[in-house]
Amino acid sequence: MRLNQKQNIALVSFAFDIGRTNFIKSKFLQRLNSGEDPVKVAEKEMFKWVYVTEIGPNGQQKEVLNESLNKQRMRELAKFKEREEFDEFDYTLGVEFSDDENVNQGYSSS
């Protein structure tokens, strides 16, 4: 996949926020690695990660939009779409991490 430096910065922010294990398993990374247009993938996939699980008074769980996460995704997408005046870099995101790392609790890709 080819990303410019600003796209890389946005992607690192996104991956850090949702957690390494979630990012590695995400459809976002799968689609980027498959060669799809990175901007179109970011527009579609980033905003799947703006929900948190709340437990209501009756004990039922529900996914609700978190405005703070939504604003963070908007900032990341804006950075991702910024144009660079220099050549793109070829990034390989075939990373290997242990599956035993704790996953950020409360995030959902619904």
Task: Explain this structure.
With 110 residues, the protein is α+β, with helices and mostly antiparallel strands. It has one domain. Helices cover 45% and strands 15% of the residues. It is built from 5 helices and 5 strands.
What is the averaged pLDDT score?
83
Percent range for helical residues? 40-55%
Overall 3D geometry? elongated
For the record, the count of structural domains works out to 1
Topology order in helix (H) and strand (E) letters: EHHHHEEHEE
Largest sheet: 3 strands, antiparallel
**What portion of the residues fall into strands of 2 or more residues?**
5-15%
- Our count of helices gives 5
Q: Can you list the strand order of the major beta sheet?
A: 3-2-5
Provide the structure class.
Answer: alpha+beta
Quaternary structure classification: single chain
Distance between the termini: 25 Å
How many β-strand runs?
Answer: 5
Radius of gyration, rounded? 15 Å
Low-confidence residue ranges: 95-108
Compact summary:
The protein is built from 5 helices and 5 strands.
Secondary structure elements and their pairing?
Layout: E1 2-3, H1 5-18, H2 20-25, H3 27-33, H4 38-45, E2 51-55, E3 61-65, H5 67-81, E4 89-90, E5 107-108
Helix pairs in contact: 1-5, 3-4
List keywords for this structure.
110 residues, alpha+beta, three-stranded antiparallel beta sheet, two-stranded antiparallel ribbon, disordered C terminus
